[in-house]
């Protein structure tokens, strides 16, 4: 039987969730859908990201961000949620921390809200249904500044 050392080039790509120093990017997921939050979490953890918190609406997301700050590298934020929508939460987080890195998650047909989010400080957006490759591409391009 062959061992891993027999195939030195297998999977030499560094996981997308790792910073240049080797530590994991820390992510806060804000989404009222347990299914979507779990999906994002699975996609990101499979690439080495660390999920440091989840919130079910904008109000809880804002509280969690303030509580975890400055140890949050990225926030994924659903646009449509109860209690406080994602755009309002985005604006309040940016007000609290102008350096916050937030990527909006949107259903198709919400272009106006996506545009408003980008103008308010969101770094990018991802459209549902979630596609693993697109999610990772958008997130890594924002985190790595490409």
Name the descriptors:
5 helices; single chain; alpha/beta; 146 residues; five-stranded parallel sheet
Q: What does this protein structure show overall?
A:
This protein is an alpha/beta fold and 146 residues long. The protein has helices spanning 34-45, 58-68, 86-96, 111-120, 132-143; strands spanning 26-30, 50-55, 74-78, 102-106, 124-127. It contains five helices and five strands, in the order βαβαβαβαβα. It has a five-stranded parallel beta sheet, sandwiched between helices. The protein starts with 25 loop residues before the first strand and ends with a helix. The mean pLDDT is 92.
For this structure, the CATH topology is Rossmann fold
Beta-strand percentage range: 15-25%
Number of domains: 1
Q: State the end-to-end distance.
A: 42 Å
Low-confidence stretches: none
Oligomer: single chain
Specify the CATH class.
Alpha Beta
Main beta sheet: strand number and arrangement?
A: 5 strands, parallel
Number of helical regions: 5
Report mean pLDDT, rounded to a whole number.
Answer: 92
Query: Which overall shape is indicated by the principal axes computed on the Cα atoms?
Result: globular
Going across the biggest sheet, name each strand in turn: 2-1-3-4-5
Tell me the helix content: 25-40%
What structural category arises from helix and sheet content?
Answer: alpha/beta
Q: Could you give the order of the helices and strands?
A: EHEHEHEHEH
Which radius of gyration do the C-alpha atoms yield? 16 Å
The CATH superfamily bears the name Response regulator
How many β-strand stretches?
Answer: 5
CATH architecture: 3-Layer(aba) Sandwich
């Amino acid at each position: 039987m062959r061992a891993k050392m027999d195939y030195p080039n297998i999977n030499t790509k560094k996981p997308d969730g790792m910073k240049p120093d080797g530590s994991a990017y820390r992510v806060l997921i804000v989404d009222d859908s347990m299914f979507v939050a779990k999906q994002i979490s699975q996609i990101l953890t499979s690439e080495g990201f660390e999920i440091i918190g989840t919130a079910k609406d904008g109000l809880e997301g804002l509280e969690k961000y303030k509580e975890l700050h400055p140890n949050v590298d990225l926030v994924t934020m659903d646009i449509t949620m109860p209690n406080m929508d994602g755009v309002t939460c985005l604006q309040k987080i940016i007000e609290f921390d102008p350096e916050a890195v937030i990527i909006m998650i949107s259903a198709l047909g919400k272009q106006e809200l996506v545009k408003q989010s980008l103008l308010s400080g969101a770094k990018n957006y991802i459209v549902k249904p979630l596609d693993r490759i697109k999610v990772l591409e958008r997130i890594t391009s924002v985190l790595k500044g490409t």
